[in-house]
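Is this the right way to post structure tokens for a design question? Let me know if I should format differently. Anyway, here goes:
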């Protein structure tokens, strides 16, 4: 039986006292001390894990001041902080054992956009892509283009001085900072902007008469330190595009303008000097024209050595990826959208790819592109070594799609098979571009010497390449190897005149700083840290410590996630691959309302309600069970404890159980399965959610609604025998009130009247059992289409199934309605895994016999049909058999060549529809929308695809009382707005649950696409 996991790392007394004092202060934000919230913030996209004491979410700059001012009191001298934005750091930059200051929840506004002068003011917590969404209508964008732009915050970009693609033209974040507003360790505010030397001299005169503020003293002292050491600074640092991240001594002074800018010290300081709360940023006009060349090579070395020629073509961007990343992309959902843009080369394998983009004035772009094409054509004729060919991409959507694939490379590498996974720890080296190929060849030789696999991608125009060696952090020897390799790469970059940290910041790699800066300049960094943060309270232990303080205590060999993971038995890790494979890349934090990825995180803003958060909490749950000596795999097959014990545990045991925190996280999941396809490493939360439910309810009572949902398929055929009676008993106000209060369900649907059986009375499609199907002559079977029933359409929306049958007839074929076989998805969602396995086996046995007859089997609801492919395979393995149920669009598109294109003209314009796709269908079947487009075009109608997130229903989620607010918020995020702008008669919705949600909140029942097709095809038209 599942034990009570009372293990909980309580707050240290000093932090507990601080949190209590903060809660009594004027602080207006959120304070979260839950173990689950702390666990989620214990990791980022690095290999490290540091459990914080608490997470606080300030609502404004005053809240940050309040927290830091309180902590500056002698009583709280040991309380330390680390500011955090998107949590995308690859080197543990924002991880801490102190308090996390998460600015992304509330401090995420655009404060001002000055179109005339081309600048904007924003709060530090705004996501980069969200910022660009606000700028786009004004014709501008914030140009540093990092791969994590849909979840990285501007504050995070400033703190790591992020750059990304196109940095030769667009520069780094520091090149766009016009001013910063920051909170110092004592709670005072420091505003920084460029200052002329004459102004600084005046400040010095004032200092002789009046005492200065802390921010003025810092400005004066830092300016003097950098000026006095100017010659050494200029001599020490290499002349690179990615000159430095953090404590940018070289650019504090602008020699041409005789001007000082302390923002240059803050930009890249990783929160070790101050908490940046607001930024004034300059903006870049959107380019009039964008065009791209995808250049293909037979080796990665050929791509690297060709890069200098491409840079000379004055391109905006030159990006590269190797065959490892390309091959992983081909296995990912994203390849469906880019395969035509990177076509295979006959008789050759593409082992390297350079993506060259030109952006700007249309005439200039076309001239540069033509010149590069001419050069490439000549080189191909001369059979230049390694060059295979190129493709031109000239439309913006396709270019964005290519970049989406490149941006996903970070996560895709985590999908590598085996225990060893490519890891970020020495992967943003920067060397002079002309030395990059030689450097990488030596880098590869280094890794090959350890027999390691690795993937490479990056910005060859800037000499930055991301190299991720594959290691297993659960292997102690591999953990040691990480430090050895890290040391060797640090030496290698210095040998080539480069830097260990060209893009992603130092984080725990601060230990290499003395070798880069030199003893004297590194000491200068300590002086600057002392000026800003003399008590070492802001992200202590990273980059540098204040003068005369203890040495760094966060290093490359600091505690890693693998230390905790290897406490989980290997057999358990293997049984929960989705939990263990999460690498923290954070794509599930995607802010966009039209992205289907993790609706529960979008609507809550709570990281425990994200795939990354849920995987983190489950991993800790498995670890704690292992520490209790529990065999989780045996537990998964055990029977629940007796009813008396479960009642006692549920109602009378008030002691803490970590399992409840995991349950809180997983109950918020909509089971939409977007994560299973959108996540680069395919983390399937609904899968391990069901595994958890199955075990959790061995100790605790299941709620009544779970039994109701799990048993719905078995009871529907019986209820459909008396639909009016059932509806009368369930749909009246009193019954609805009772159901809501006792079971926790609202808006339960009514059974169809007339029923499907009644609609098909006398119809030839009815009455076929297996024997009847087998009796159909083999030569005639190609004329038949077998309609697979699902519980929702057949019993709650019978008209849809009836209309599909009519459509099949209009197309000249013979429909047969197969007997209803419970699908089992409701059982799986609620974690009744043993029952689900039996339901799946019964259905699979029947469908395999039918499938052997050679007639297509077609279902209507995406979620249910995809269950046959995914959950059945997981539950049954080889016993699932080979049967295949098609969705309507899959079947129709495969048959189009049998029917002549059909033109329907009404006033010389095509009939128009808009498809609102089911989120599971959109993510698991990326070609579904294209198939519907092709189908409607064939039959003479125009179809538009709505770009949407989740509707908020997701099976039974939207019917549960506890989810009502979130369900409505999700619907309003993207669906309501798009529906308001679309005539109801044109709205097509492929998912049953989505149609239910539209009916509930918009007051009309939209058509399934097959019903629209039926309207298009008058009887006898084909």
């Amino acid at each position: 039986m599942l034990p009570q996991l009372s293990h909980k790392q309580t707050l240290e007394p000093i932090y507990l006292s601080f949190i209590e004092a903060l809660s009594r202060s004027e602080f207006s934000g959120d304070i979260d001390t839950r173990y689950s919230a702390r666990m989620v913030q214990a990791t980022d996209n690095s290999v490290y894990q540091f459990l914080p004491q608490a997470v606080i979410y300030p609502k404004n700059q005053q809240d940050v001041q309040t927290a830091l001012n309180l902590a500056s009191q002698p009583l709280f001298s040991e309380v330390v902080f680390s500011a955090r934005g998107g949590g995308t750091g690859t080197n543990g930059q924002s991880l801490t054992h102190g308090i996390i200051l998460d600015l992304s929840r509330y401090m995420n506004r655009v404060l001002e956009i000055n179109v005339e002068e081309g600048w904007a003011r924003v709060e530090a917590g705004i996501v980069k892509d969200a910022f660009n969404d606000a700028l786009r209508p004004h014709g501008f964008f914030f140009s540093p283009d990092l791969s994590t732009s849909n979840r990285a915050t501007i504050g995070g970009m400033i703190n790591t001085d992020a750059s990304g693609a196109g940095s030769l033209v667009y520069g780094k974040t520091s090149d766009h900072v016009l001013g910063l507003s920051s909170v110092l360790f004592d709670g005072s505010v420091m505003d920084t902007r460029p200052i002329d030397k004459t102004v600084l001299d005046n400040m010095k005169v004032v200092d002789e008469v009046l005492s200065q503020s802390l921010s003025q003293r810092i400005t004066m002292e830092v300016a003097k330190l950098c000026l006095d050491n100017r010659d050494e600074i200029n001599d020490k640092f290499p002349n690179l595009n990615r000159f430095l991240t953090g404590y940018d001594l070289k650019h504090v002074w602008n020699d041409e303008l005789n001007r000082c800018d302390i923002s240059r010290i803050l930009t890249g300081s990783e929160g070790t000097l101050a908490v940046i709360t607001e930024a004034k940023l300059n903006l870049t006009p959107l380019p009039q024209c964008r065009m791209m060349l995808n250049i293909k090579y037979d080796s990665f070395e050929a791509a690297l050595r060709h890069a200098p020629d491409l840079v000379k073509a004055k391109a905006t961007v030159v990006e590269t990826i190797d065959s490892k990343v390309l091959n992983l992309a081909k296995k990912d959902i994203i390849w469906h959208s880019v395969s035509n843009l990177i076509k295979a080369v006959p008789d050759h394998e593409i082992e390297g790819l350079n993506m060259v983009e030109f952006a700007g004035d249309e005439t200039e772009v076309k001239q540069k592109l033509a010149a590069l094409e001419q050069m490439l054509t000549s080189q191909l004729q001369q059979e230049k070594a390694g060059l295979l060919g190129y493709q031109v991409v000239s439309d913006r959507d396709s270019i964005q799609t290519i970049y989406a694939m490149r941006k996903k490379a970070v996560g895709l590498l985590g999908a590598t098979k085996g225990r060893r996974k490519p890891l970020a720890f020495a992967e943003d080296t920067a060397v002079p571009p002309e030395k990059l190929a030689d450097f990488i060849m030596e880098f590869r030789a280094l890794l090959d010497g350890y027999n390691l696999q690795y993937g490479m991608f990056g910005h060859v125009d800037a000499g930055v390449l991301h190299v991720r060696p594959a290691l297993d952090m659960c292997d102690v020897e591999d953990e040691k190897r990480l430090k050895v390799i890290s040391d060797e790469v640090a030496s290698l970059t210095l040998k080539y005149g480069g830097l260990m940290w060209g893009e992603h910041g130092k984080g725990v790699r601060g230990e290499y700083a003395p070798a880069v800066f030199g003893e004297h300049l590194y000491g200068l960094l300590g002086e600057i840290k002392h000026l800003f943060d003399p008590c070492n309270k802001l992200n202590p232990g990273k980059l540098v410590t204040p003068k005369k303080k203890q040495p760094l205590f966060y290093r490359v060999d600091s505690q890693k996630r693998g230390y905790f993971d290897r406490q989980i038995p290997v057999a358990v890790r293997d049984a929960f691959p989705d939990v263990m494979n999460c690498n923290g890349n954070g794509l599930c934090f995607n802010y966009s309302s039209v992205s289907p990825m993790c609706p529960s995180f979008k609507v809550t803003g709570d990281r425990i309600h994200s795939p990354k958060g849920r995987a983190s909490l489950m991993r800790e749950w498995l670890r704690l069970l292992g520490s209790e000596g529990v065999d989780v795999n045996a537990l998964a097959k055990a029977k629940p404890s007796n009813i008396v014990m479960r009642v006692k545990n549920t109602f009378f045991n008030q002691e803490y159980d970590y399992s409840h925190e995991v349950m809180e996280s997983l109950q918020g999941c909509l089971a939409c399965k977007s994560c299973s396809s959108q996540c680069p490493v395919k983390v399937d939360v609904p899968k391990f959610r069901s595994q958890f439910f199955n075990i959790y309810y061995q100790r605790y009572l299941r709620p009544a609604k779970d039994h109701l949902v799990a048993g719905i398929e078995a009871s529907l055929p019986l209820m459909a025998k008396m639909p009016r009676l059932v509806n009368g008993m369930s749909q009246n106000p009193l019954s609805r009130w009772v159901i809501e209060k006792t079971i926790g369900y609202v808006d339960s649907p009514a059974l169809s009247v007339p029923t499907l059986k009644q609609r098909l009375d006398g119809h030839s499609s009815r009455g076929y059992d297996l024997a009847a199907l087998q009796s159909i002559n083999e030569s005639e079977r190609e004329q038949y289409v077998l309609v697979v029933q699902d519980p929702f359409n057949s019993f709650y929306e019978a008209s849809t199934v009836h209309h599909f049958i009519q459509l099949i007839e209009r197309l000249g074929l013979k429909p047969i309605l197969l007997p209803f076989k419970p699908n089992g998805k409701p059982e799986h969602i609620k974690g009744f895994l043993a029952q689900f396995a039996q339901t799946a086996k019964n259905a699979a046995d029947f469908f395999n016999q039918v499938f052997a007859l050679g007639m297509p089997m077609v279902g209507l609801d995406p979620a249910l049909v995809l269950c046959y492919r995914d959950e059945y395979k997981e539950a049954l393995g080889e016993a699932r058999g080979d049967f295949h149920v098609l969705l309507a669009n899959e079947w129709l598109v495969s048959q189009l060549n049998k029917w002549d294109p059909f033109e329907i003209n009404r006033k010389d314009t095509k009939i128009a529809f808009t498809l609102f796709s089911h989120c599971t269908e959109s993510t698991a079947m990326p070609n579904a929308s294209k198939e519907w487009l092709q189908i409607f075009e064939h039959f003479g109608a125009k179809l538009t695809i709505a770009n949407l997130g989740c509707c908020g229903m997701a099976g039974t989620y939207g019917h549960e009382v506890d989810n009502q607010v979130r369900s409505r918020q999700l619907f309003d995020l993207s669906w309501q707005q798009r529906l308001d702008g679309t005539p109801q008669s044109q709205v097509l919705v492929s998912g049953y649950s989505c149609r239910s949600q539209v009916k509930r909140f918009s007051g009309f029942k939209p058509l399934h696409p097959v019903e629209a097709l039926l309207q298009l095809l008058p009887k006898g038209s084909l």
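Format looks fine. Someone answered above. Worth noting: The radius of gyration is 31 Å. Residues 65 and 372 are 54 Å apart (CA to CA).
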